[in-house]
Design a protein that fits this description.
31% of the residues lie in helices and 16% in strands. The chain is built from five helices and six strands. The strands form two sheets. The protein has a four-stranded mixed sheet. The chain has a two-stranded antiparallel ribbon with strand order 1-2.
């Protein structure tokens, strides 16, 4: 099994096989429009613009599981990204990333690229851990997605390469993306 065995639903309801993106370096991210990390859309769009012509694609998956920070419809989530951050990379329908109803793609990615712990040297990471410990301790267990803007990087063959946690921004990803391109 690899990433190309999965499909996702576009905002308009159309099913898309991820094999559509075969031969691209992929960054897959769960997003939300009302999150502390939402400004990362700016850097994600910059990455997309900088590297898309070299075969780099970002796939955004809105998710309302974390603090109900994506409460609107699929259309509202997509419109928010486009209007507020100029997002031109694909935004799919809202999904769940944790629990029994987690999208099969996310079930696969969490196993393929496990969680490696919180960065105790990063204040955002420490604060996130404290918040999760207090409000949703079940997310601390295993490879669950810890919050919005967890990012998964795949090479051109669909091989999982690296998981970036919500606090990890553009500068942490660039060397890995450039190496794969």
């Amino acid at each position: 099994m690899n990433i190309y065995d999965f499909e996702a639903e576009k905002v308009n309801g159309e099913k898309v096989s991820l094999s559509t993106y075969q031969n691209d370096v992929l960054l897959i991210v769960n997003t939300a429009s009302k999150c502390t990390f939402t400004p990362q859309f700016d850097d994600l769009q910059k990455l997309y613009e900088q590297y898309h012509n070299q075969g780099f694609t970002i796939l955004g998956f809105p998710c309302n599981q974390f603090g109900e920070q994506e409460p609107g419809t699929n259309e509202e989530a997509e419109a928010f990204c486009k209007m507020n951050y100029g997002v031109t990379f694909p935004i799919f329908s809202k999904i769940k990333v944790n629990g029994e109803e987690a999208h099969p793609l996310y079930q696969y990615m969490k196993e393929a690229l496990p969680f490696h712990g919180f960065d105790e040297n990063n204040i955002q990471s420490k604060l996130l851990k404290m918040m999760i410990t207090e409000n949703n301790p079940e997310w601390l267990i295993g490879n669950e997605i810890k919050w919005n803007f967890t990012k998964f990087l795949f090479d051109r063959n669909g091989t999982p390469v690296k998981r970036f946690e919500p606090h990890e921004e553009k500068d942490a990803m660039v060397p890995f993306i450039e190496k794969l391109l």
